[in-house]
Write a structure and sequence with these properties.
The chain has helices at residues 8-17, 65-77, 100-111, 126-135, 151-158, 172-184; strands spanning 25-27, 34-36, 56-60, 79-82, 85-88, 91-95, 118-122, 142-146, 165-167, 190-192. The protein contains 6 helices and 10 strands, in the order αβββαβββαβαβαβαβ. A 6-stranded parallel β-sheet has the order 3-6-7-8-9-10. Strands 1-2 form a two-stranded antiparallel ribbon. α3 packs parallel to α4 (126-135) and α4 (126-135) runs parallel beside α5 (151-158). It is an alpha/beta fold.
Length: 193
């Protein structure tokens, strides 16, 4: 970066070539902000993991308010120290299937709880995902559900706030092709499945 003879294009290519194989991303906000990725090894015995695994509790649009409240109460109850690390649920994974009102109700109910959680929105419908992101404004959720069919619409949902976008596919080949399309569209804050 201090070399006067390097063009901006050469600098960006060089910095991308020397970046870690697994890019680091930040999700959540405030006390529940976590960095994921940025690892250089697959197994902990090779080298200590840079960013430890995080625990999420799954919710679904099909749950009643009582079921959601029971899970939230359980999240509060399970919190202990193991080998010097606090073990607790740090994220809420909320899945959309087909009931938009139920999904948005569950998202709002969890957000209105007194828990400090990061959020993972599992939703392939870009319009519904956009509404959920609006409810969670400022919490930096993961939006999981980009596919080769909907990746353009999903990029529109996440690009303004630079949210992590979960890309999924049925095979590695399809995933690679989809990621190429997403990156060609200019988005790089990705989680791959």
């Amino acid at each position: 970066s201090k070399c006067p003879h390097m063009s901006d294009d050469a600098l960006s290519k060089l910095s991308e070539a020397t970046a870690p194989l697994m890019r680091g991303i930040k999700v959540g906000a405030g006390n529940s902000e976590y960095e994921l990725g940025a690892e250089t090894v697959l197994f902990r015995h090779e080298k200590t993991l840079v960013n430890r695994n995080r625990y999420a509790v799954a919710f679904c649009e099909c749950m009643t308010d009582e079921e959601v409240d029971a899970k939230l109460a359980n999240i509060k109850a399970v919190n202990y120290i193991r080998i010097g690390e606090e073990m607790k649920a740090e994220m809420a994974l909320i899945e959309y299937l087909e009931n938009k009102e139920g999904f948005l109700r569950v998202v709002s109910r969890i957000k209105d709880s007194e828990l400090d959680l990061a959020y993972i929105l599992v939703c392939e419908d870009a319009a519904v995902a956009k509404e959920a992101v609006e409810i969670l404004k400022g919490t930096n959720p993961v939006v999981y559900g980009a596919t080769k069919e909907n990746y353009k619409e999903m990029i529109e949902v996440v690009k303004e706030d630079k949210l992590a976008l979960g890309v999924k596919a049925s095979s590695l080949e399809e995933l690679y092709a989809t990621v190429e399309l997403v990156q060609a569209a200019g988005y790089r804050e990705l989680i791959l499945d």
